[in-house]
TrEMBL record:
It comes from the Archaea. This is dUTP pyrophosphatase. Keywords: Hydrolase, Nucleotide metabolism. Pfam families: DCD. InterPro entries: dCTP_deaminase (IPR011962), dUTPase-like_sf (IPR036157), dUTPase_trimeric (IPR033704). One of its GO terms (molecular function) is dCTP deaminase activity. GO terms for biological process: dUTP biosynthetic process. It comes from Halovenus aranensis.
């Protein structure tokens, strides 16, 4: 079963009232990066490629078509017995953009990241809402203890 937006809000850091939605919590964009060097994914390990942080102009990121890594502004905790899913705000889709996300594991804590795909140039204000995080009940073996634990805190 999916949880209410208020339940999700109770597991996040400081939020604006407008971020709490009926079924989840809207996440904001805190930083945008462009990858500059290749990463590497092997059978036993991985590295994340170098990236450079973009500077907003007058508070806005003007993004030409391409792929960007975004860091969310909220401090996230995925509680035990739950799993998190993140969806793009539909206004992104309606503007020819997409946010790609992975599984948010029980026990994860941090300020996570996602891949913003821009198919048509868009202006996004730093701090604007771009995604919605929802929680569902989930059975799990152990809790998240990977290399991204505690990231960006
Ligand atoms: O879109 C997403 C999805 C998840 N996460 C966070 C929460 C998740 O629990 C953690 C690790 O994700 P995953 O398990 O997919 O990472 P991995 O590539 O398997 O690395 P590791 O084995 O170090 O965890 O990253 C994000 O920041 N963005």
């Amino acid at each position: 079963m999916f949880k209410s937006g208020q339940f999700v809000a109770d597991h996040l850091g400081e939020l604006r009232e407008t971020q709490v939605q009926p079924n989840g919590v809207d996440l904001t964009v805190d930083a945008v990066f462009e990858q500059t060097e290749p990463g590497r994914i092997g059978r036993d390990g991985k590295t994340v490629g170098e990236r450079r942080e973009l500077a907003p102009e007058d508070g806005y990121y003007s993004l030409p078509s391409g792929g960007y890594i975004v860091r969310y502004g909220e401090q996230i905790t995925i509680p035990a017995d739950h799993i998190g899913f993140l969806y793009p705000r539909s206004s992104l889709l309606r503007n020819s953009c997409m946010l790609d996300t992975a599984v948010w594991d029980a026990g994860y804590e941090g300020r996570g990241e996602g891949l913003l795909e821009v198919f048509h140039e868009i202006d996004i204000e730093r701090g604007a809402r771009i995604a919605q995080l929802v929680f569902a009940d989930a059975a799990h073996v152990d809790s998240y203890d990977g290399s991204y634990q505690g990231e960006n805190l």
